[in-house]
Amino acid sequence: MSGTSSVLNPPADAVAPVRHPDAPAPGELLGTHYEHCFGCGGGQEHGLHLAARAGEGVSVTAEFTVRAAHQGAPGLAHGGILATALDETLGSLHWVLRTIAVTGRLETDFLLPVPVDTVLYLEAEVTAVHGRKIYCTATGRLGGPDGDVAVRADALFIEVKVDHFIDNGRPEEIRAAMEDPDQVRRARAFEVNP
Ligand SMILES: CCCCCCCCCCCCCC(=O)SCCNC(=O)CCNC(=O)[C@H](O)C(C)(C)COP(=O)(O)OP(=O)(O)OC[C@H]1O[C@@H](n2cnc3c(N)ncnc32)[C@H](O)[C@@H]1OP(=O)(O)O
Fold first, then answer.
1. Is 159 in contact with 126 (CB distance < 8 Å)?
2. CB atoms within 10 A of CB 7
3. I need a surface site. Which of 57, 98, 147, 181 has the fewest CB within 10 A?
4. pLDDT per position as a tens digit, 102-142
5. What sign does the CA torsion over 106, 112, 116, 122 have?
6. CA–CA distance, 188 with 180 (Å, rounded to integer)
């Protein structure tokens, strides 16, 4: 889209993304990557509780119901919350790539106001990969998966090793996550499966 920074345009030698052979089947619910994640975790009372599903190719779909706790203007979703919903949906793509990655850059367009109690129907896909750089795009629609686009984003995610979290996270949470065998198994599986 015009207005998107040139750093979000994949270089000429970028390659098409490849769906990992062990990616969840299209339609499968992805679940949370971390119980206390504000985007998808069940342990965050006012979090987004965003539910994402694997899509075809290297894509995902997700739904987010805007609640009163997510307001900016009266009765309307806060823009930062909508950016978070886009970021979380884009982050879910990495279940399909089976790569751990973090957001390096996220550029968002806010096209329509999003009222409290509405469902935002989100969709994201990886468009290209260049080394550790993962180029992706997302939309959020109102009224249904084919409804009007209310928000959209282009983003660059950067692949990292699990050490990114171990080295930079707060020791209490890292220790708790590392004591959760499911969390460790999941993180390691992402690292060892090319
Ligand atoms: C316990 C385990 C749990 C696991 C849970 C899974 C969590 C999932 C969470 C999901 C939650 C939802 C998601 C979230 O919210 S993720 C949370 C929000 N994001 C972050 O916290 C990331 C913070 N940033 C960093 O840690 C570093 O800057 C990273 C790791 C991103 C890069 O630093 P690193 O030292 O590693 O790499 P590099 O600097 O050599 O750069 C490498 C290449 O990338 C290019 N580049 C970099 N940045 C930008 C930029 N801004 N624009 C354009 N380009 C950029 C750079 O030019 C270079 O290109 P090239 O020279 O190679 O061509």
1. no
2. 12
3. 181
4. 999 999 999 999 999 999 999 999 999 999 999 999 999 99
5. negative
6. 13
Residues touching ligand 1 (Cβ under 6 Å) are 7, 33-34, 87-88, 91, 100, 102-105, 131-133, 156, 158, 160, 162, 165, 177, 183, 187
d(CA 192, CA 129): 19
Domains along the sequence of the chain with CATH? 14-160 (3.10.129.10), 161-194 (no CATH)
Find out whether 155 and 107 touch, Cβ atoms under 8 Å. yes
Work out the number of other CB atoms within 10 angstroms of the CB of residue 95.
21
Give the sign of the dihedral formed by CA 176, CA 45, CA 37, CA 73. negative
Residue 53 to residue 30: CA distance in whole angstroms: 5
- Predicted structure pTM score: 0.95
- Location of structure tokens 């009765």: 75
Give the residue from 127, 155, 97 showing the smallest Cα distance to 15: 127
| Separation of CA 74 and ligand 1 centre (Å) | 34
Looking at the CA of residue 178, tell me the nearest atom of ligand 1: 1
Please name the helix (run of DSSP H) or strand (run of DSSP E) that holds residue 93, with its range, or none.
helix 79-97
Instruction: Determine the Cα angle at 81 with ends 149 and 165, to 5°.
Output: 115
Cα 35 → chain centroid: 15
